[in-house]
User: What shape does this take?
Amino acid sequence: MKHSFVVYDPSIMTADPAQQAMMDRYNGIFSPLEITAEAFKAAYDTPDIGPHIEKDYKGLSYLSWPFAYRYLKEHFPTLFVAFEEKTVGEVVFGGPGYYYLRPYLTDGIKRTVALIFPVMDRKHNAIKELDGRAISDNCQRAAVKCIATFTGLGLRLYAGEDIPKEDDQKGSPKLPLQQESPKPAPAVSQAAPETTGGTFDGKEALVEFCNANPLGLADVRACQVAVKNALDTVGLTTGANVKTVGDFGNVITTLVSSWTKDSGIKITKAAMTKELDAIRGAAVNAQGAVEAVKAFVEAKK
Assistant: This one.
C-alpha cells in the first residue's frame, strides 16, 4: 500500500500568512470543527428567530445579520465567522462578474471548510465592479449563510420550511419562508381605473399614486423620482413593466420602506413587516395604495 504524507520543509514555507493558510488547507492541515447532531437539530428547530424574520422586495424571507450573530452567540458562544483571505486583509476572490467570498465557522483553533458565496447586488445579480459597501454587505450575508449551514440556525429559511411556533397552537399562522408572498387578485371596481379588461395598468396606477403624493414629498416630481428608485430596486425598468397587482405592491412597499429609513423613523422590524404587509394588501389599485400610505405617514407624525 502506498502512503502519501507532507514533509515539513522551511523552503516551501511562504512569508504571506494568507497564502500559507491556503497551502495548509489544500494539504488538509487544519482541525475540523465539529457540531453534534443534537446541537444542530436543536438550533435548526429553534422557534426564537420567528419574530425576526423579514422579507425582501420579492417577498422572500430572511434573517438579518444582527439577529443571526445574536443567536449564534446564544447557542454557540465560542464560535464566530471568519473569511479566507487572498492576501492579508483581502477577502474577495475571483474577478469582475465572478467575485466570491469564502466564509467559514471557527472557534479560533478548529474550523469548518469554507463556503463559496458569490458577491451579489440587492437584485441577486453578480457584481462586476466592487466597492467597499458591496464587500461589507456581502460579508454580512455570507456570514448569515455560513452560520445557517454549519449550525442549523435559520437553515429552515433556505429549506423553505416554516419556523416552529413555541405555542404550536392549532390553526396558528405560519411564516412563509423562501416563497413569494401571495398576490391578491386585482379588485374589479369602477374606482380602479387602472384595471381594464382584466389587465393591470401599472404605469397608470403609479402616475395616479405620484399625483396624489401620499408620502408628502416636495412635489409630484420628487414622488416620481422616488418611485423610479423603487422600480430599480425591485428590478423593473419603467412603470410599464408593472403588469400585476403583486408587482405594484412590491414597488409601493419598497418605496415606503426607503422613505421610512430616509426619514429616520424608528420602528421595530417586526412592526415594519406588519405595516408593509397591510399596505401590500391594500395596494390592489392606486386608490387603495394612496389611502394605505397616507394612513401610514399620518401614524408616524
Observations:
- The chain is about 40% helix and 5% strand.
